[in-house]
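Q: What would this chain look like folded?
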Amino acid sequence: MALDNSLRNDAQGKSLENAQTQDMRFICLRPFNDDQGEVGSVLSLRLGGYIELSTVDWHDHLTFMLFLAGCNFACPYCQNSRLIPLDSGTETDLDSVEQLVLKGRRFLDSIGFSGGEPTLQPEAVAELSRRAKLRGLESFLNTNGSRPAILQTLFDERLVDHVAIDVKAPLEAGIYGAIVGRPAHGAQIIEAVKESIRATLDRGISLELRTTVVPGLIGSKEDIERIVSSLPVGDYRYILQQFVPSPDVLDPSLAKVEPASQGSLVQLARGAVSVGLKAVYVRTRELGVKKVNAS
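A: My prediction, written as structure tokens:
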């Protein structure tokens, strides 16, 4: 059953309350616009962590994943909530990051940026992508889609080869704003997400859209059908991800949520196929990524 709006709003309210009691400095508490505060500089970035070799973040690629600190959303189910504050992570110079990548270069074919929200550090993303390309590596960006102008700038310089955009909820202002912890800016955010999707498709860049299924919060059959019906027609993969509770989840009550089973995710994915999407997948901790057909 879909979660009603009062419960969604309650979840959003708890996420902000929990964040504020931890004295977190959210960009989401500032006015929302595409020129909102950024962190890091062209010579350094605020780094939350990294994975030396990932086989799951970009399908069929061996990726060095960087998790950049700072986010403009406050999703209650965020599993990297420690990276939401602008002053989280560690200030790290780009030369040091480049050396980390080069240590594993012979095993890698790509570099990836996630977060947090990596488009809040656009100069660092651009510079590291330039350096990666000089080394023969492709570049991957996982974003919440809230800053389409940054994507356009990166696309103009051909610095990104693959984009993953998180579609958090049905693209409707009230629900989306509540889920991402920005209730006053839902309409603005969904327009930004749609523009990011259109921009990526228009440039012919490899694209996947991801929705994390959080039982009781987002991911009912109705939710998925509403999400799918609002997506543009295009050549992209749609992935339903299994929410896996962790101690770092922003809303502590969600740390006890039982993850959706693979079977239930497959049923949701079949619903997405029946609505018209052709390339639909599920991602679970147990079995990784699996394509789903209509039956």
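Strands lie at 44-54, 63-68, 90-93, 110-115, 138-143, 162-166, 206-213, 237-242, 280-284, 288-292.
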